[in-house]
Amino acid sequence: MVTPENIPKNIVSHFLSSPRVQSDHHGRLGTMTAPMTDLQWGNFSETGPWDLNRDEIAWSRVAVTLRNAAQKEVPTLIRSRRIPPIGRLIVVVARLGWALLPWFVRKRRNKFATPEESRAYISLRLRIAIEKLGATYIKLAQIISSGEGLFPTELVDEFKRCRDQVPAEPWDSVRTTVEQDLGARIEDVFSSFEKTALAAASIAQVHRATLRTGEEVVVKVQRPEVSRLVRADLRVMAWIAPFMIGRIKVAALANPPALVELFAETIVEELDFRMEASNMIDVASMLHDLDQNGYIVPRPHPALVTRRVLVMQQLHGFNFDDVEGMKLAGIDTEEVVKTGMIAFMEGALIHGVFHGDLHGGNLFVLTDGRTALLDFGIVGRLTQPRRLAFMKLMLGATTNDVRGQVAALCELGALPKDTDIDAVIVDLNLDNPIDPTELSGEELVMEVQRIVKSLLAYGAKLPKELMLYVKNMVFLDGAIARLAPDLDIIAELTNITMTFTQRHGERLFRELGMAAAEFQMDLSGVKATLGVDESTDSLTYRELQQRRELIQKRMKDHLTR
């Protein structure tokens, strides 16, 4: 526990004795440009407010224990109950009912001029209701906001505000949390602390501050009631989920009880910032080991990290959606996207570790073109068997091995292990994909329904790691649309495959038990999935998007007849 007697004094003593800290002519403390020793093992900025020593960080030693304890709590939170938390259930139903009722009445009276107006109205009301319900539902909104192309545009755009524009906690509440967790008055640790939040999201909000020793920092402060409310909400969701089976088509595919379990596994780890700070260390180390110099991680403070407070280095850069600003600064936005695609895939396939919640609010681009990753509450961690299964899945895609891909999905847990692989290939037409642009709206809807029915029959589900991976891929897909619409998708997939083979081929083939000579790149399956002929050598993202828009229009026209 940090105490007012020792922490400020120890921090000042540590930094004043360091050659990296000096006073300017006004007596203020600042950072010099001496080499940072933590750059030998982690991807951080070249200069920093402190130098991390992994062996001396107290909170990192308990992170594994905390993570295991959080996962052991999940079955208790989602176990079957005859009676849910009645009080919380009433609040949830009332909030959502109040959001839906006016929309339903207006829709019945044909008050909306267009379907887009109707969707915009209900999206706004849902976003307001979700913000009032708190962290659990805001987190769900954040997940939906990353699903561009999967969910209605109006809903995605409205829910993007839940990433960092949620109403903040009042200053008195923030001050109490910080002082309780640090065991000291704010004035004893910080020379300044901005009362207005820099950003506010589901679990926490962040404030700019300056330590008594002069370092500019960002302080992440957990909302005071979030831990209790999240656990109550998970119990409510677990009680409701069985009643949703078979009632909502999309929910039926996802398996509502399994979805609640998946969500619980993800969110419980966000409730202790010591795990998040440890995730920052692990991702920085992984990026360094992979020589992924296009990404950096802010340094967490070696002492000022508790369950509800996380002090970290302050970095500056462009918002990830500020394409115009980046281009004016001479930043190659296409290169930013390319680097992100390779770094994300390498982390998952080679180290089994990847940032699990990529979205525009969780990263920004530095003036030198590198990307800073933020918010490490959710990090995907693959066991060795699942990492190898991911490798087989990706390898199967680049060699057009359909059977190998389905087998890999079984190993990942997306399909039961005893699944008849050949039957899946036939039922889903995986060996002879259909070009969706050649289908009518009615045929498209029927094909989607047929695939969903087949997946349900096989017991398909979405494991946590696969869900996080797919969600990140959806985000990167949207990032290409904004930052690199003229990127040649086929050429880039070829480049990524060759990069992996050159950098990690020996290890990949050894772990998968195959000879390098057996690897023959064949993107015909990928091209078929994109809906283009095998002879096609080039397809820009802009062209791909036009195909998608055509498909979506045909389906929408058919459904609105």
Count of helical segments? Answer: 22
- Gap between N and C termini: 64 Å
Shape: globular
How many structurally independent domains?
A: 2
Q: Biggest sheet, in brief?
A: 6 strands, antiparallel
Helix content: 40-55%
% residues in beta strands: 5-15%
What is the average of the pLDDT values?
Answer: 84
Alpha carbon gyration radius: 25 Å
Strand segment count:
14
Poorly predicted residue ranges: 1-33, 249-253
The secondary structure category is alpha+beta
Explain this structure.
- By secondary structure, this protein is an alpha+beta fold.
- It folds into two domains: 1-79 and 167-290 and 297-315, no CATH class; 384-559, no CATH class.
- The protein has 22 helices and 14 strands.
- The strands form four sheets. Strands 3, 4, 5, 6, 8 and 9 form a six-stranded antiparallel sheet that branches.
- Strand 4 (199-200) and strand 5 form a beta hairpin.
- Helix 4 runs parallel beside helix 6, helix 9 (226-244) packs antiparallel against helix 11 and helix 14 (333-351) crosses helix 15.
- The chain is globular and about 70 Å long.
- The chain starts with 6 loop residues before the first helix and ends with a helix.
